[in-house]
Amino acid sequence: MYRPWHGYLVLFALFACYLTIQCRAFLFAPRLNVISPLLVSMRAGSEFTIKGNADKMSHVTLNGQAIAFDINGNFLQNVLVQKGVTRIEVASTSRFGKVSKKTITLVGKE
Fold first, then answer.
1. Which residues pair with 103 in a beta bridge?
2. pTM, rounded to two decimals
3. Which residues contact 25 (CB under 8 A, 6 or more apart)?
4. 38 with 104: CB under 8 angstroms?
5. Strands 47-54 and 99-109: what pairing?
6. 66 CB-near residues (< 8 Å, 6+ apart)
7. Distances in Å between the alpha carbon of 52 and those of 4, 24, 29, 47, 70?
8. What is the sign, positive or negative, of the torsion defined by CA atoms of 60, 79, 47, 83?
């Protein structure tokens, strides 16, 4: 037997799911995974590729500079290894201002 309020129940359930997803984005920092090693020792002057992925709806930066990522949130960025110890910070910022950070330490040897 058809009951007219069943349609409202379905709409309420969909709205509750949408609200749950939005609350998660508001309450928690975005996902950020750095696939590259977090400590790298290489010859100074060589290039190192930083790989990782982040939430698709976030803004990803490398030492404060925006970097591009694909539709799935994957990113690649080449960095020139300097002599000595260099710390590189990868950050992902959500539209609500929540931030996830990872630090990569590069050691450039002669």
1. 89
2. 0.75
3. 57, 94, 95, 96
4. yes
5. unpaired
6. 59, 60
7. 49, 22, 16, 16, 11
8. negative
Q: Which helix (H) or strand (E) holds 51?
A: strand 47-54
Amino acid, res. 33 = N
pLDDT per residue, tens digit, the chain (110 aa), is: 567 767 788 888 888 888 887 777 677 888 899 988 777 788 888 888 899 999 888 899 999 999 998 999 999 999 888 898 889 999 999 888 999 999 988 888 87
3-state secondary structure of 20: helix
CB crowding 52-63: b at 16 or more within 10 Å, else e: bbbbeebbbbbe
Both tokens assigned to 72: 């799935």
- Say which amino acid occupies 59: H
Q: Half-sphere exposure of residue 94, counting CA atoms within 13 Å on the CB side?
A: 17
